[in-house]
Amino acid sequence: MDVEFSEEQQEIRRALRDALDKQSDSPAVRAAMATEHGYDAKVWRRLCDQTGLAGLGIPEEYGGVGFGFTEVVIALEEMGRALFPSPFLASSVMAASALLHGADEGARTEYLPGIAEGSLLAALALAEPGTRDLAAIALPATATADGGYRLDGVKTHVVDGALAGLILVAARLDGETALFAVDADAAGLTRTALPVLDQTRRQARLDFADTPARLLGTPGAATEKALERVRQLTEVAIAAESVGGAARCLDMTVEYSKIRVQFGRAIGSFQALKHRCADLYVALETSRSALYYAAWAAAEAEAAGLDVDPAAPGAGELALMAPLATTQATAAYRHLAEEAIQLHGGVGFTWEHDVHLYLKRATTSALLFGPRTRQRERIAALAGI
Known about the structure:
Elements: H1 7-23, H2 26-33, H3 41-51, H4 69-82, H5 88-102, H6 105-117, E1 122-125, E2 140-143, E3 149-159, E4 166-173, E5 176-183, E6 189-193, E7 203-216, H7 221-259, E8 261-262, E9 265-266, H8 271-304, H9 315-343, H10 355-365, H11 372-382
Parallel strand pairs: 1-4, 2-4
Antiparallel strand pairs: 2-3, 3-7, 4-5, 5-7, 6-7, 8-9
């Protein structure tokens, strides 16, 4: 495993960091999260046009840039550092991955170019009330006499579900797991924005009442494999965002410790604070190591495809490393954000300081796929513990 980034990958990081420093600074983030949809459509459009951000991991044949998942992880790390409010996770990672792995060629050809361009925003609806377990998906789909399909039921905690133009829905068709596409203006679909702790990432409840839907791909084992891969990739994506955000929290804390003077000296010169910052650095680097291992496994698994032997390099390791990386990274992220607030003293508790925004992102990211205890149970089962 080579953990060194290529010059091209380092250039991607530099270009994105420069763009985000200019267009997603603190005032821009606060202005975006105060809007109805929680992001700035003009900034999103500009970044997509200038950097190809939305299509970074989408193959060129579907209008994307054609990079691998490693480059997507680099982008997510930088977006997490800037706390960039955008549809990237929901549309370009979750929905795009579901289409690439779980849809038919016609659907990929129809939907992916718009997602890659950034003009079509998509969302993936997995969770249902009371559960976020893929095996517990129960929303029923029924076939109609005219060859179509209808959905009835509820999906909840759908990331960007209230603003997406395309909804991909996991449902049950004759007892089999199936993936469907639903237009945002479809009859019988009611979208309700949920109150969220993290205003930089919106979630919604979707109610389906005899809602027309288009079947994507083949129901059954193929769709189950596809959704499992989507979950794994999303977990690595969350880990990448978390590492970026945690690194920013540590940077802010170290910088503050150099300029805050107490008892006639910078507080960063006190040994007790040095020790705490050193511990935070260790937690951050441990998470970064887990992330990069998971990113390597994801890239290897993506190159091999879904039908490869689960024990093959990359494929089997991704199943284990994805939840491990996200639990490690989100726990470290929250810890670093909490410590940053403490070490900033009184100013750290104020609305005007940005640290609380990172704490909110850390808290909600840890729960996107259910409680951390459930993820650790998966890790233990996969590791044979």
